Amino acid sequence: MPRKYIILLAVTLGVIVLDQWTKYLVVRELTTQMEGKESLGERLAAMYSEPPPKGFTGMHYQPRRHIEISESFFRIRYLENPGAAWGMFRSMPPEARVPLFHVAIIGALILITFSFRKLTGTDPEEKWALWGLPLVLGGALGNYIDRVARAFVIDFLEVHWFDKATFPSFNVADAAICIGVGMLIVDSFVRKEKPAQAPTQA
To answer: pTM for this structure?
Structure first.
């Protein structure tokens, strides 16, 4: 198997596994959804089956605590996002929002596959795209798993400034997408098409 496809599989699967594992830990430790579930199978079923109706908090899984990493700047808190990244489209009706996400992920898969196949995998200048595309793909699929399983994405990383300003909550998949997109922006400059040089006069 060519090296570039090994990188694609390793990075994509690595992001998906890390994303779903961290979400599992957040649901287990910070919500009541897995209370009374003794086995791993029962806990996974509680996380990936049809969610219960929304409770008094407005969420399907009821939070029971959060973790303060830095009281003034950063905490881990369970949140549900039915929309896209940073909560976009969350107010859109489900009958319109769900098909939109299906179309978006199919489009992303086609675009990423097309772009990745064009890479040689050996040109040093391609390194930003070689690693950036799998990061975007892994992040997109990680959040898509959430949407297929329960129609909302689990977010839990909350950056804030003394609770006066808060950055939209995010997760590992979101972080991978942002890092990957940043690398692709760098790639667009590194591999910028060079103008053809005029032939030298004899």
So the answer is: 0.87
Q: Are 38 and 157 in contact (CB under 8 A)?
A: no
**How far is CA 88 from each of CA 96, 100, 101, rounded to the nearest angstrom?**
13, 12, 11
Specify whether 163 is catalytic. Answer: no
155 catalytic per annotation: yes
pLDDT tens digit string along 121-136? 888 999 999 999 999 9
Structural contact between residues 116 and 144, judged by C-beta atoms closer than 8 angstroms: no
Minimal CA–CA distance to 181: which of 124, 136, 130?
136
Of the residues 19, 123, 146, 155, which is catalytic?
155
Cβ density class 16-33: b for 16+ within 10 Å, e for less: bebbbebbbebbeebbeb
The model's pLDDT over 30-80, given as tens digits with 9 standing for 90+, comes to 999 999 999 999 999 999 999 999 999 999 999 999 999 998 899 999 999
Vertex 201 angle, CA 196 and 202, to 5°:
135
Q: How far apart are CA 83 and CA 42, in angstroms?
A: 27
Q: Could you give the CA distance from residue 62 to residue 64 in angstroms, rounded to a whole number?
A: 6
| Phi/psi at 80 (5° precision) | -115, 135
Rounded-to-integer distance, Cα 180 and Cα 178, Å: 5
CA dihedral sign, ordered 73, 66, 163, 19:
positive
Which token pair is 89?
């489209």
